[in-house]
Amino acid sequence: MILILEANVDEQSPIFQQLLTHLRGLSGIHFRVHQEQGAEQVLSEIYLIGDTKQLRIEDMEALPGVGRAIRVSREYRMLGRHNDDQRGNGFEYNGVRFGQDNLNVFAGLCAVDTPEHVEQMLRALQENGQVCTRMGAYKPRTSPYAFQGHGKACLPWVFDLAGKYGMRVIAMEILHESHMDEIREALERTGHPTGVMLQIGTRNTQNFELLKAVGRQQELPVLLKRGFGITLEESLNAAEYLASEGNTKVVFGLRGMKTNLGDPHRNFVDFAQVPVVKRLTRMPVCIDPSHSVGSRDAGPDGIMDVFHVTAQGVVAGANMILVDFHPDPATALVDGPQALLLKELPWFLEDVRLARETYEERKLLATAQTPI
Ligand code: PEP
Ligand code: MN
User: Of all atoms in ligand 1, which is nearest to the CA of residue 201?
Assistant: First the structure.
């Protein structure tokens, strides 16, 4: 059960202390307090765990300071949607809104290589009105002899360049909790010229200790990629790990599943699950068409598969797109074959715009079917 406290009932207030005293007296119940910094005020929620069936909603709502009580009907207590749950979805980070009702594009380099390439990429993004990007500094590679990313060494100049070109958020994968500390330190040292969304890659979706460590900080939001060989439910539970530790600023990423049934695509595209994740949880949903498809192959219509699957995800309501571009894919150190060219950026964005417009129209059409 979740108790949503009245606005401005904070941990210092006597009402709050009174409430905690009451909750401590309930047998078979323990609880966890979660505070969310909203635009104007701190919102507090208390998660009751254990034998909550014995508790009546009316009784809990009558407790001092409690605005609403919600019976949790699903496993994903914090990120899930529950009956009578009118809590909003999404969050704002560094001036960018992430929610189930909008769309952000994160085009950029799979892996940071040279300052020239990073700058060319960022300039193209700025020229096309973009404020978000992807830049991999830590790369999980199949071979131990392959390029592992520039790591901490590239962070200061990547952040400075991102600030120079007006980037508000960079999606950046981390493989270890020390990488998170390195990113936070580098942001601090460079004076926060940009923001970072920590990315947990598909190989680490069930690295529970990493999830807990990332969940314990609330400063940086997280993009959690779905595990490529586990069920959707298992991956959604992985997201819940982040929230249960305190960080509810989580975007859930679909990036295709590992099976040869998707051949010749690199992974089996799973964007049919965009509405499923939105229905089960309050997380914004990201699609990664580049790692799903893995090539620049095009259909006889001249449209690349990467474009096609992006449109499919956006038409189904996706909220974020993570997509690989590179100024010179032949020299890219990671994933060159799937990278789009900078000159293809306006085309890509226009294709996304068309797909999003179609989604908005489809929503209106669905609304019109509902009798008033
Ligand atoms: C990536 O986005 O660079 C990446 C490695 O993705 P994934 O974890 O989905 O393979
Ligand atoms: Mn990649």
Answer: 8
Range 90-369 has CATH code 3.20.20.70: yes
Where does ligand 1 bind, in terms of residues with CB under 6 Å? Answer: 110, 136, 140, 173, 201-202, 225, 255, 288, 291
Query: What ligand 1 atom has the least distance to the C-alpha of 334?
Result: 3
List every span in the chain annotated with CATH 3.30.70: 2-70
User: How many Å from the N-terminal Cα to the C-terminal Cα in the chain?
Assistant: 32
- Which numeric CATH code is attached to 2-70? 3.30.70
pTM of the model: 0.91
Residues with beta carbon < 5 A to ion ligand 2? 110, 335
Q: Where are the CATH 3.20.20.70 domain residues in the chain?
A: 90-369
pLDDT band, residue 51 (cuts 50/70/90): confident
Among 269, 321, 274, residue whose Cα is nearest residue 292? 269
Counting ligand 1 atoms within 8 A of each CB, the residue from 199, 291, 292, 338 with the most, and so the one to mutate, is 291
Take atom 6 of ligand 1 and give the residue whose Cα is closest.
201
124-179 per-position pLDDT tens digit? 999 999 999 999 999 999 999 999 999 999 999 999 999 999 999 999 999 999 99
Q: In this model, does residue 287 exceed pLDDT 80?
A: yes
Q: What is the dihedral of CA 357, 363, 367, 369, to 10 degrees?
A: 100
**Would you say the C-alpha torsion 10, 12, 16, 20 has a positive or negative sign?**
positive
